[in-house]
Amino acid sequence: MKHYDIVIIGGGPAGLAAAVSAHEAGAKDILILERDERLGGILNQCIHNGFGLHTFKEELTGPEYAERYIKKVLEYGIPYKLKSIVADISDKREILYISAEEGAVTIEAGAIVLAMGCRERPRGALGIPGYRPAGIFTAGTAQRLMNIEGYLVGKKVFILGSGDIGLIMARRMTLEGAEVKCVAELMPYSGGLNRNIVQCLNDFNIPLKLSHTVTKIHGKERVTGITISKVDENRRPIPGTEEYYDCDTLLLSCGLLPENELSKSAGVALDRVTGGPVVDDKLQTSVPGIFACGNVLHVHDLVDYVSEEAERAGYQAYRYAAGETANGGETVKLTVGHGVRYTVPQSIDAGTMADSVIVRFRVADVYRDRSIAVYYDGKLIKRTKKRIMAPGEMEQISVRKDSFAEKTPDTITVCVED
Q: Average pLDDT, stretch 225-245?
């Protein structure tokens, strides 16, 4: 069985950044496993700009952003295998992958970085009544068909869900000559970035209906129209509020799910809110030597943050494989209070933590003129005023090691306060 110091599962933005970081830290025996026919992951179909402002201090398209990391992978001579599907991971860090060229191959790793990304929530998970006609796509599938395969998926389009991909596809299809009727969102707030609402909907006069959902799909062979209804505070359709839209295409942009089937097979503990692994400040999962980063860990709003997180995971994977990590024995648990859905990481090892640890989280609702408060064992440590916070945009705090100088807390609580 061939041994690698570090095996990275996924060749998208997270996997590429982790590989580059591990190599720059000193790792030489690295392997990237990617199921697609090219490196770059989802960025290859994201031909719009807006990437790289944090990482490269310039605005890039998705393929341009990916190319920056692919060039480094090639420059460093980091091995990678394309069209290689990982079928299983064991808690002993044995990896089974399958490819047409090699068949089924089992390898072992000193450390593993999980960077499988996420997938879209399908129609079957939404419970929309109606037949199964042609013309229903997830927004990401439509994006791939248009931007890579060259197909216009429809001419009269309705979009359910205001996730970032759906918002971007509203603009993309408009630019290609399609008529986007409306975007409906089940929640009373948008699930996407505010800049995408402005640039993709407002700039093209595309209406956004909050607290609405599709209650019927019309048509048997092909979509001929949809009916939407307003929903109450329990997200149930309100009788008498139905509206009919004539359309031939329905795009679904109703959330992303971290791709963690492999994590489960390895025995990795998953967070019930994020759907991704539970990790410590080194981005190590509950299984020693297995690290996670990017959208497989929790769904990010910006790819720049994916790369930043992946660089940390790659560095820590190198340290683990080299035998440079140890357990400090002082675990601080991160918990959430009012208005905060989750934190990543979920714990910090006070004995071995870096001088500063970034903790990212999402709020549970839209809040205006509120504060992010941080408590150590119930004692207020800091409060930061925020003009606006929304679920579609990640927030973050920094936990400094010197803040534990007097006493290491058992728990750190993050919450939203007036």
A: 96
